[in-house]
Amino acid sequence: MDYAIKKSNSEWRSELGDEKFAVLREAGTERPGTGKLLDESRAGTYTCGACDAELFKSGTKFDSDCGWPSFYESVRPEAVELLEDRSLGTVRTEVRCAHCGSHLGHVFPDGFGTPTGDRYCMNSISLTFTPAE
Q1: For residue 34, how many C-alpha atoms fall within 13 Å in the half-sphere facing its CB?
Q2: DSSP three-state, residue 18
Q3: Can you say whether the dihedral through the CA atoms of 11, 17, 23, 27 is positive or negative?
Q4: What letter does residue 30 receive in the DSSP assignment?
Q5: Measured distance CA(87)–CA(67) in Å, rounded
Q6: How far apart, in Å, are the Cα atoms of 46 and each of 50, 83, 92, 95, 123?
Q7: pLDDT averaged over consecutive 10-residue blocks of the chain (133 residues)?
Q8: How confident is the model over 6-28, as pLDDT tens digits?
Q9: Checking CA distances to 37, which of 63, 66, 68, 85 falls within 20 to 30 Å?
Q10: The model's pTM
């Protein structure tokens, strides 16, 4: 995909730092239950931790007991890019920011009881939360 924001790995690493770079640009995963946004319950907006593109609204966040912040849909379908991921010997769907291509997490069709049936399982470190005013 052709992203609006294009930077070299050294530029991204310099801006993000090693920990964020490992997740956002190298598709790493933070340990379950450790993310700072897991228990965030205030009204607000979740944006990309690399480029600040709007990704999720707080009203779509739900407690899935998976250890990562979960949402049942993005702010708009075109806000995220969905890619087939076979990296762990199974087929999953990777979620990336459609604006800069940063890795956010994965989406699974097991959001039981949600309007969409989806569970966008996101890394806290991939997101920035801005409370509503």
Answers
A1: 6
A2: helix
A3: positive
A4: P
A5: 20
A6: 12, 21, 23, 14, 12
A7: 92 98 97 96 98 98 96 97 91 97 97 95 98 94
A8: 999 999 999 999 999 999 999 99
A9: 85
A10: 0.95
